[in-house]
Amino acid sequence: MSAPWLGDACSLVDAFRAGELSPAEAVEAVIESAEADPYNAICHIDADGAREAASSADVSKPFGGVPFAVKELEMVEGWPYAYGTKLLEGTTGHYTMVHVERIRELGGAIPVVQTTSSELGLVGYTSTIVHGTTSNPWDTSRTPGGSSGGTAAAVSGGLVPIGTGTDGGGSIRIPAAYTGLVGFKTSFRRIPFAPFAQMEPLTSTVGCLSRSVRDTARWLDVANGAHPRDPFSLPRVEGFEAGLGSYELAGLRVAVLPDFGGAVVHPDVIDVVEEAARELIAAAGLKRVDVDFTLPDMGGAWIAPALPIMWAGVGAFWPEVRDMLTTEVAGALDLATNYDISMAAAIDPVRKQLNEAVATLFDDADIVLAATCPDDAFAAAGPSPTTVGDVDVDPFNAGRLTMGMNITGLPAISVPAGLSPDGLPIGMQIVGMRHTDGLLLDLAALLERVRPWPLVAPAAR
Predict the structure, then answer these.
(1) Is 1 domain-assigned?
(2) For the residues of 4-54, what is the DSSP string, one character each?
(3) Nearest-angstrom CA–CA distance, 255 and 252
(4) Distance (Å, rounded) from C-alpha 403 to C-alpha 396?
(5) How many independent structural domains does the chain possess?
(6) How far apart are CA 373 and CA 385, in angstroms?
(7) C-alpha to C-alpha distance for 313 and 355, rounded to whole angstroms
(8) DSSP-assigned states of every residue in 155-223
(9) 22 is in which domain, residue-wise?
(10) What is the chain's Cα-based Rg?
(11) Does any domain span residue 3?
């Protein structure tokens, strides 16, 4: 095998079981490609560990023998743990996240590479002092997004079939949209965030970036379920992959809101999302409904609860470490120095308003279709855009389509909707009320059938 598998992970398992390929061959191909990584998506290769695991892989397991990537924000025992920042360069992981452990042990997949993240997972593109700039396989002058940009670039670029991501404000969905992948932010803590579960700001979830809906459904089958070290983790649900194609979709009410109640979205993105929405509505027999929907400004409500956590880790060294941090993270720490009880008090009412707004929305609709990102992928080294077309926007606009689902805990899956006039992927989110994860996967799988997308970027084929 001279190149890594360019199909989805499920088809790779089928190839193993049919004797067409061995896990050892698949792992070796990933190692070779990672060593030649043209996107700066890989920050560590565990060649010895992967080869040893491949020699005894159990291909009867759901992902038996499949090589996978782990985002650097998820700790793996014995692997580097820089967390995207120069501050932690040289740190080594002393435990393995439950998410990764389940995919490895229950799923049978083989962790081979670690992928780059934005610094501390806080920025919507992947360019850091510790690792440099990660590029998008669809156009290497552009970003694959963030914070799971390294995984997105590695999977879309053909280096590895599937990989982990984390999503605290869009960090799975934004990279998926920019690189033509599937990215699912499940209902809050459908998959445990453990050990040392994040207690505040209660926005972060974990999952995967994949080439197909069935890969994501199978991943969820393996990884979901409560864990004692995450008090917010949800009880186990069976049958996400088996449930694809089984939902009664006809007659469900759908609201098409490309701007999701507040973002400035490029007209070209709106056109692609509207076209994909029409095809999905027709194929599923959905009933389109008009709703009047606006959201309170979410930017402050999203970033403010994270400031005390940042300060707990860095405050003792501030401002001496400013030159070791990217501009956005340093700016956030400047905000943290002014964080006080009045700022904290202002957040709760906004979060309540947001929750009430989406609850009212889902009184009138069962499903929402929205854009994932306001525009094409922007420059690989950033900064986040200050304009969309010829309209000036604030720094939060790039995440305004996604962060609301993190604050409220709603599930949202980003799927490829089509291409922009520049030939770059455009993502569409399918959003539902909490605990409708299986329904969203079913709708995504239907769109995949009626509007199929390329599994990898053109450069990887």
Answers:
(1) no
(2) ---S-HHHHHHHHHTTSS-HHHHHHHHHHHHHT-SSS-EEEE-HHHHHHHH
(3) 10
(4) 9
(5) 1
(6) 11
(7) 29
(8) HHTTS-SEEEEEESSSTTHHHHHHHT-EEEE-STTSS---SS---SS---EEEEEESSHHHHHHHHHHH
(9) 9-460
(10) 20
(11) no
Task: Assign residue 406 a region (left: φ > 0; alpha: ψ between -120 and 50; beta: otherwise).
Answer: alpha
- The residue whose two tokens read 């985002």 is 71
Instruction: Tell me if 147 is assigned to some domain.
Output: yes
Instruction: Tell me how far apart the alpha carbons of residues 333 and 196 are, in angstroms, rounded to a whole number.
Output: 23
The pLDDT tens digits of the residues spanning 109-128 come to 999 999 999 999 999 999 99
Query: Which residues, other chains included, contact 281 with Cβ-Cβ below 8 Å and sequence gap of 6+?
Result: 254, 256, 288
Q: What is the pLDDT of residues 77-89, one digit of tens each?
A: 999 999 999 999 9
Tell me the sheet residues that pair with 416: 427
Residue 142 lies in a domain: yes
Which pair of structure tokens corresponds to residue 99?
A: 């998410």
Evaluate if pTM is beyond 0.90.
yes
- At 163, list the tokens: 């990989």
- Residue 443: which CATH number? 3.90.1300.10
**Are 100 and 111 a contacting pair, CB within 8 Å?**
yes
pLDDT of residue 301: 87
Task: Report pLDDT digits (tens) over 406-459.
Answer: 999 999 999 999 999 999 999 999 999 999 999 999 999 999 999 999 999 999
What 3-state DSSP class applies to 114? Answer: strand
Q: Helix (H, G, I), strand (E, B), or coil: what is residue 109? A: coil
